[in-house]
């Protein structure tokens, strides 16, 4: 059993409201991959970057996950749509599944991630 500790992801000001997400490398029971953190309605939210339709990365370009209106996370491959605050599928071929959420917190101008059994630092 590993005791995880909080890891720094970025400065808070690097996450613009509905802006580009920050990607980071992870390992997981499904293998190595990436995750991302973005700001939506003022809060930081983080998910494993793996679509629930087909296990592929979802960004349109690196760090670009939201639709043009900034309302949903939309997978670039077939358009599965997820709620940015819960990761729940809200449309498209993800069929009621949810993105795997990661625990993040903001403290004193820094965004922190607490790894767990779903995702831990790569390497
Ligand atoms: S792989 Fe994401 S919608 Fe198909």
Automatic annotation (TrEMBL):
Keywords of this entry: 2Fe-2S, Iron, Iron-sulfur, Metal-binding
Indicate the segments forming the Rieske domain, all copies: 42-113
Q: Which residues form a coiled coil?
A: none
Concerning Pfam families, the annotation shows: Rieske (PF00355)
UniProt name for this protein: Rieske (2Fe-2S) protein
The source organism is Piscinibacterium candidicorallinum
Source taxonomy lineage? Bacteria, Pseudomonadati, Pseudomonadota, Betaproteobacteria, Burkholderiales
